Amino acid sequence: MANVLVVDDDADVAELVRTVLSIAGHEVTVATDGEHGIAAASAAHPDLIVLDWMMPGMTGIEVCRTLRQDSSFDATRIIMLTAKSAPSDIDAARGAGADDYVVKPFAPRELRRRVAELLAS
User: Fold this and answer.
1) Is the dihedral of CA 73, 97, 33, 66 positive or negative?
2) Could you list the pLDDT tens digit for every one of the 121 residues in the chain?
3) What is the rounded radius of gyration, in angstroms, for the C-alpha atoms of the chain?
4) Cα 69 → chain centroid
5) Pairing label, strands 3-7, 48-51
6) Sequence-ordered list of residues with C-beta below 8 angstroms from that of 61, at least 6 positions apart, any chain
7) Structural domains of the chain ordered from first start
8) Contacting residues for 42 by C-beta, under 8 A, at least 6 apart
9) Alpha-carbon span 92 to 98, nearest angstrom
C-alpha cells in the first residue's frame, strides 16, 4: 500500500486518521505541526499527505504551498482535512495545490475512499 503522512496538531484526530488508514493497509507517520510536517515529508517523500489547515505556527495552506514549490513532491497527493468548509476555503486550498478537501467532522469510510481514489489516479 502507500506511505502516508498525517499532519495535524489535534492528537485525537491524528490518531483516528492514523488508525483508519493503517487498517486500510497504509504505512502512516504523524507530524504534529506544519514545520515537523515539512521535515517528515522531506525525509520520507510520502505518497499522500493528509494535512490539517488550522495549526499553530505554519498553517496547512503554507505547508501545502511550500511542498508544491518543490518539484520532488509533484507526485505526492495532498488532502486537506479541516473544519473550514466555505467555498472560498476550498478554492484557497486548491489554489495552494491540494488535490482534495475533506471537511471535519468526517466519516472514516469517506476518508478511506478519497485516499484510495487519489492514490489510484
Assistant:
1) positive
2) 899 999 999 999 999 999 999 999 999 999 999 999 999 999 999 999 999 999 999 999 999 999 999 999 999 999 999 999 999 999 999 999 999 999 999 999 999 999 999 999 8
3) 13
4) 16
5) parallel
6) 53, 80, 92, 93, 96
7) 3-120 (3.40.50.2300)
8) none
9) 9
